[in-house]
Amino acid sequence: MVSKRMFLAATTLAYGLALGAAMAAEPLSVMSFGGAYQEAQRKAVFNAYAEATGRPVSEQEYGGEIAKIKAMIDSGNTTLDVVDVDAPTLLQGCDEGIFEPIDWEKIGPKSEWLPGTTSDCGVGTIVYATILSYDEEKLANKPTKLADLFDLEKFPGKRGLWKNPATNLEFALLADGVAPDAVYETLSTPEGLDRAFAKLDTIKDQIVWWEAGAQAPQLLASGEVTLTTAWNGRIFNANKEGRKFGMVWDNQILDSNFWAIPKGAKDIEGSLAFIHFAVEPKILAATAKYIPYGPVRTTAAAEVAPEDARNLPTSPANLTTSLTLDNAFWADHGDEIRKRFTTWLSN
Amino acid sequence: MAQTMSLATPLSRPDLRAALRRAERPNRLRALALALPALLFLIVTFGAPIGLFLTTAVRNPEVRHILPQTVSTLDQWDGQGVPGEEAFAALAADLARAKENSTAAALGKRLNYESAGMRSRIMSVTRHLGSFADGPLAPQFIALDPAWADTELWAIIKRNGAPVTLYYLLTAVDLGQDATGGIGRVAADQAVFLDILGRTLWIAGLVTVATLLLGFPTAYVISLAPARVAGLMLLMVLLPLWTSLLVRTTAWVVLLQTDGVINQVLLALGLTTEKLQLMLTRFGTVTAMTHIQLPFTILPILSVMKSISEGQMRAARSLGAPPLAAFWRIYAPQTLPGVAAGCLMTFILSLGYYITPALVGGPRDQMVSNFIATYINRDLNWGMAAALACLLLVMTLSIYLAFLRIVGAERIKLG
């Protein structure tokens, strides 16, 4: 309690000085994805920020449509100060110049961020993962590594996979023994791509494809599949509702969200100060209390309560063999690979 | 003079026809004037937008508008070897402007369709423009990415300087252009669309046959039933038609899923020992589509059947035809206009199915419309979506015309 109060006092002092009294009254406009995610941000970040700096946060919600941000910028009146965007949106927006460049001097040392979660125009905030999951009540012999997904002898039965080449080709190579940092290099070569498809061929007859995130836990619950890949938040929520689904963190594939500043934002210093606050290790760690998405800043991991850490993609024990999804790779090769994936599916 | 001529020689047929047409013209104009609001409405809200959208299948504005200098420089290039320094300089100037206008991403996306990796090549050069040293630019481009020394890459840029492109339409039929502009088949693992078109035709055909097999006897029974019973039966045919397509499809999901009604009944009756995979299969897709299309096949057949006099069958019997022969030789041929209309309607409607295969079908049952939707919503590749839509439209129209040819326009009776 004392430490929390001291921490708040310190930050209040820092931000109060930085912003000046006049600025402090003007609310900061932040847009995020709504739902449980934004609620967690409200509890962990927005309220703490208002308390620390006296500057309230006015919230907006969206569904991740880049068009909405673009339309606002094109109208010449950028009313938002900070937006939460997913990785493909950040990439596209960065390319199209709709985000302001980030002055990392004012945020923190980039080296503290997980690989792939820093950008010229975005600051990584949380990480979610695609993982292997199973029903603990139905499997006596528990899978422990990703390669078990492809082991039909030890784990007979159907497998649930996301109907999308992204993550599946990566999983195939990882299970085939490719090191995480060599996955995209391998996938860029025709032989590597063949190798990934060949590995998927070995379980093709046993695959049940899911498309919406909610389907994966349903497939497990109904017993339709023995193993499935799934988004960790979905499995976490199913467990909160009484299921006992196990999560295999080996070779998890990470993807992240970012804070970004839309082009033409009125108070860029204020926006940067907010982002700096929002990615403070303590603040980031607090988010994990409300939603099982991990902080991307490695220094935040230590601040997470141990009982929450177990469920986070970013807790050090879960991170040892992880791979970060390369959205630039998919922007370049997605068209071609998706076509091949489609032909592969129908053969 | 003309009058004496017409009295002396009978009017030849074309003259008579022309005279008739002249006489009817005011009437036709009046009819047209009455239909004009509906026509205008259709043109403005339906014809024109579709026509405009379909032109995106050949429109190719990106390279021409974003790289004007490069395109005009490459006009002089003979396509042999790497273009000279002036091409690199023009590209650098164009990209500098693209950076200012934030159009580099659109250019990269367009070129990436033709050659994977072009997006990041364009973006990377655009980002590095500021750090290029004075002096020749070509070596600096090539140092950044050796692909800039690739003849094919420049050939792609040159080819796409044209205001129209065949790329989307060719891709929609699994063809592609090589560096020299020659047209050939794409690699086997990229050839998706002919397969999907064939699948679309096959599923539509299966559904048409299934609705005919189920619909013809149903229509026959309704046409023979007493008026009150027939009314009730007709209501049961029509009722599903008044229910939303999405609702009917979702109802089939409830029936077909692994833990669904059908499986539970089969298990309870001991007809199967394990649950059958009915969802996400071709069987499920065709079943659900058949159910949805049934009224469209039944109604035209029924309307024709009702117009066939019962006396004809009796006459055939009294002349010695056995019941089946009387049915096949006297009755069935007369239902043909209705059968043709019903089958045509179901076949054409089935070609455009989207929701049902998406929800009930597996990856092998997705039809052309599902891919059009993906290209529009997720990939934002409207050129490809328009090309596939063109193909579907051409296919549908040619089937329709072929059908008219074979069956004869006057023999189709749409209700």
Automatic annotation (TrEMBL), chain A:
Record's signal peptide: 1-24
SUPFAM superfamilies named among the record's database cross-references: Periplasmic binding protein-like II
Keyword terms of this UniProt record: Periplasm, Signal
InterPro entries tied to this protein: SBP
Keyword Acetylation: no
Superkingdom of the organism of origin: Bacteria
Keyword Endoplasmic reticulum applies: no
PANTHER family on file: ABC TRANSPORTER SUBSTRATE-BINDING PROTEIN, SPERMIDINE/PUTRESCINE-BINDING PERIPLASMIC PROTEIN
Protein name, as recorded: Putative spermidine/putrescine transport system substrate-binding protein
From TrEMBL, chain B:
Cellular compartment(s): Cell membrane
Membrane-crossing segments per the record: 201-222, 229-247, 283-304, 339-360, 380-403
BP terms from Gene Ontology: transmembrane transport
Keyword Transmembrane in record: yes
Gene3D superfamilies: MetI-like (1.10.3720.10)
Membrane topology per record: Multi-pass membrane protein
Domain ABC transmembrane type-1: 197-403
GO CC aspect terms: plasma membrane
PANTHER family: ABC TRANSPORTER PERMEASE PROTEIN, INNER MEMBRANE ABC TRANSPORTER PERMEASE PROTEIN YDCU-RELATED-RELATED
Record family assignment: Belongs to the binding-protein-dependent transport system permease family. CysTW subfamily.
Protein name: Putative spermidine/putrescine transport system permease protein
